[in-house]
Design brief:
Blueprint: E1 6-11, E2 24-30, H1 41-47, E3 48-50, E4 63-73, E5 79-84, E6 88-91, E7 94-97, H2 98-105, E8 111-120, E9 126-134, H3 141-149, E10 160-163, H4 188-191, H5 198-211, H6 229-243, H7 250-254, H8 258-292
Parallel strand pairs: 9-10
Antiparallel strand pairs: 1-2, 2-4, 3-4, 4-5, 6-7, 8-9
Length: 293
Amino acid sequence: MAIAHTQVYLLDAQFQPVPIGVPGALYISGRGVARGYYQRPGLTAARFLPNPFAIAVDADFGRLYQTGDLARYLPDGSLEFLGRLDQQIKLRGFRVELGEIEAQLLHHPQVKEAAVVAQPDQSDQPMLVAYVVPVGKAIAPSELRQFLKTRLSAYLIPPIFVSLKALPLTRNGKVNRAALPPPEKVSPEAQIVLPRNATEAAIATIWAEVLGLETVGIHQDFFALGGHSLLATQVLSRLRDRFEVELPLRQLFEAQTVAELAAVVEAALLAEIEALTDAEAELQVAQASEVKR
């Protein structure tokens, strides 16, 4: 129900109003907005801001309160609450705003609702799990992962995606994160596709050793299997010893399966061979020039 003499704003990171359907940070102004937090001037300054959209003569709307909520306008003009912007967690040294990931997922045209939580992985470390309610049929996790790769840093992309018919809600209509079902434990054997060449076989063996698994399929996701940034550095170190190639850490965040990483390694090896070939050709030309002299 609307409150008299109150105005809400949905703003982006540049403090500009967002269009209908686009998630934005929720701000409120009007007579119902307090003057600040009791004896907390720092927090008051951070959350109670001058309202740049207010008319100068209207003192009731001079303050803008940052609620910390994420919402969007629906085509019928109603306001849909999407979650909290201040749900920040620490993930392997990185500060992660879960609301930021949820907001980007909602940009996908086939995602109706989204919620992201941190759950313990096999080694009891926090792992991002994304719950999505599709507009129609379920969306392939690989499609969502590729979509997020163009919008978020690699460490913000959840390794696990769970499709639901609806998100569980509390009595006041907010997402009940405690009621979200745990990700289904899919049997590794059901996902295994054996290596097709020597490169994939070597990488699969390295992954299995690092992750403490008997077998790894070429299409299984490193992070979904319990991998994290510390284990990723071990993988890259062993790849360097095995193939004599130097790959940056971000490479494993971008190529998260054995098949994808094998293609990267083979491309790096091919580039080295071509570089050596070019160098040998230049050396032969130089030697020929010396003979002619």
